[in-house]
Amino acid sequence: GRIRKEQVLAAVPCTSVQGRFKSSRSREYLQESIVPSYHFQPSMPRLPVPKLADTCSRYLASQGALLDSQQYAETARITQEFQAKEGAELHKELVALNDQNKHTSYISGPWFDMYLKSRQSVVLNFNPFISFVDDPKAGYTNQLVRATNFVVSSARFMKCLRAELLKPEIFHLGERSKSKWFERVIRYVPSSLSWYGAYMANGYPLDMSQYKNLFNSTRIPRPGRDEIVVDNSANHLLVIRNGHMYVFDVMDADGNIKPAAELHAYLSHILSDQTPPPSHPLGYLTAENRDTWAALRQKLEDCGNGEVLKTVDSAMFCLCLEDSAAEDVDSLTRLMLHGDGANRWYDKSFSLIVDRNGGAAVNFEHAWGDGVAVLRYFNEVFDDVSISPNVTPSCKPADINASQHVRKLEFKLDGALQEGIQQAKENFWTHVKPLDLAALQYTKHGKNDLKKYKISPDSLMQLAIQMGYHRLTGKSAGTYESCSTAAFKHGRTETVRSCTPETRTCSLAFDKVDSANALELRQLIQACSDKHNSLTKNAAMGQGWDRHLFALRTLAEQTSASPAIFRDPAYAAINHIILSTSTLSSPAVHLGGFAPVVPDGFGIGYMIRDRELGYNVTSYPASHNVRDFLQCVESSLEDLFKVLQESNKAA
Ligand code: BUJ
Q1: Distance from C-alpha of 471 to C-alpha of 473, rounded to nearest angstrom
Q2: Phi-psi region of 246 (alpha: psi -120 to 50; beta: other; left: phi over 0)
Q3: Closest ligand 1 atom to the C-alpha of 329?
């Protein structure tokens, strides 16, 4: 891992913990980058609008994996017509619009709308989770100790970001852009040019615009379209435990982070609150249909809760302290993905959840940002907490009267609101109960072996998903792999369509009784890997087809006529995402997951480690059995590795 043993403070006595920073300044900031956080932002390249001809041919290539030849011919005809007529017009319009809005990307507006106009519950439909590995030091994975350390480190991260002292995010292609020398030079290159300087040193700065929505930020339900509100003046934290909501200031009047022992005392005070759970916990409302919640929120304000709601909205983030503990991977997924609804505020930009045994995760609202920004926060606080904890298991909370600093939030509820919450609670359980889930930990092989075989690990993971689904159903299906386009200003994501004609051929070949020999199969695997690699590279460069067609469709919806391509059943079918997939790699991540995006689909989070591979999958049992699916994925992995091993010997 990235944490070196010698860096980790062994059980340090509390007194020396307080005195371990070089200066009072370094206690306040998690880092002090000499290159300002947003240094590259003004010269970030713009997300390209692909050529219409490229989009159409890429679209048809993806359709080739799903359609038979007759259907394909029809879809090809419709697509060519689109390219020649309405598509060409819409594309022209999109390019003109994009030229007029140089401060952003062509996808930013439509993508925010996609999230914010959706009226579906954010729970399962949007919010994913990522969980932390345990603290490497004995005794630190304890609820109170861990929560306190996370709060201090989060505050150090937040202050560092506010002061623009957080290192800009750069994707390094070599060593040059990582060096101290690079930082010393690039800081003097004006922001209007700095991106080019980094590029020349083989570094690709990533868009940082989403970081402004990380803290003090929330989604607010509004009729028809929600909004995102940020209030950087707030210094308080929202804590939910047992359905009760509390706030306290993390910073003092001078803006300095309060002593860890005091924050320790506040959290200890909250954990010792014996009041029975409230009869009407408001958290359920944030899991409601967005219009229902918008109307109830208006009622809440009308009943005099406007100020208290503002306190919730502006809090740094939400810390959820759980009285229960996850016993295994499945219960951890349930707890961190949806929990019990009462102890959450799903609208906050993110919630840090710490269970009774100190198991911790981040659950985040998705409209404001994507994995890259969340993972940066996640990794930084994990390292800070692991390397420089502010309280140790032997620390005692400060001897203060915490009740003077911790305020329990009280809401005024009339009968209609109480009924609304009761209904929201019922809807919540109806919504989450059917979700089924299972995980596969595959420990026989990992990234190291795949490197040996010269197969891209991500493409192999995707191929096993394709083969697994094919084994389960005999079919191919609409597949989505999330790919970041943060290399561009206001980039979000693009879709890698990892179901390809190559994966279909490969799936069929492996399932034939009289199977081809290892060398032939090996060539098929290689073809899948090559194709997937090129699709992934294209997607990361903004050269997929999904976002372009999505933007064109959004434009078309503003006029009355809907082009035939968007009414083609094959278009609906390829966008009915049965296999929704996403991966991330970080030594700080233990588990992660999300729900399916269609009732008959799978939500597939997966991870690639040096010596093991893992899938965490969700589904709704009415359509498929998630364990059957995972068995098919596992047997596919077995077959794939067998072929790779055999062909390696034969070669
Ligand atoms: O694509 C997008 O625009 C956003 C996507 C949407 N969707 C989830 C539907 C694909 N959002 C993301 O990709 C963020 C997902 C963050 C969670 C990823 C979890 C991956 C780690 C799983 C580890 C599994 C390990 C199992 C071990 C037994």
Answers
A1: 6
A2: beta
A3: 28
| 357: enclosing H helix or E strand | none
ipTM of the complex: 0.99
Query: How far is ligand 1, taken at its centre, from the CA of residue 578, in Å?
Result: 15
For residues 314 and 90, the answer to whether their CB atoms sit within 8 Å is no
Q: Strand pairing of 170-172 and 203-205? A: antiparallel
Termini Cα distance of the chain? 34
Ligand 1 centroid to residue 581 C-alpha, Å = 6
Q: Does residue 394 have its Cβ closer than 6 Å to ligand 1?
A: no
Q: Dihedrals φ, ψ of 238, to 5°?
A: -100, 130
| Distance from residue 593's CA to the centre of ligand 1 (Å) | 6
* pLDDT tens-digit readout, 246-298: 999 999 999 999 999 999 999 999 999 999 999 999 999 999 999 999 999 99
The 8-class DSSP code of residue 229 comes to: E
Length of the chain equals: 651
Give me ligand 1 centre to Cα 503, in Å. Answer: 22
Assess whether the C-beta atom of 482 lies below 6 angstroms from ligand 1. Answer: yes
395's tokens: 């620390």
| pTM, full prediction | 0.96
Whole-angstrom Cα distance, residue 60 to residue 500? 11
**Residues facing residue 236 across a β-bridge:** 249
Q: Tell me how far apart the 2 most distant CA atoms of the chain are, in Å.
A: 77
CA 129, CA 383: separation in Å to the nearest integer? Answer: 19
Distances (CA, A) of 471 to 38, 159, 460: 48, 51, 16
Q: Which two tokens stand for residue 10?
A: 């062994």
Closest-CA residue, ligand 1 atom 6, reads: 482
> Which atom of ligand 1 approaches the CA of 482 most closely?
1
User: Does any ligand 1 atom lie closer than 6 A to the CB of residue 606?
Assistant: yes
The residues assigned a catalytic role are: 366
Pick from 483, 529, 479, 523: nearest CA to 499: 479
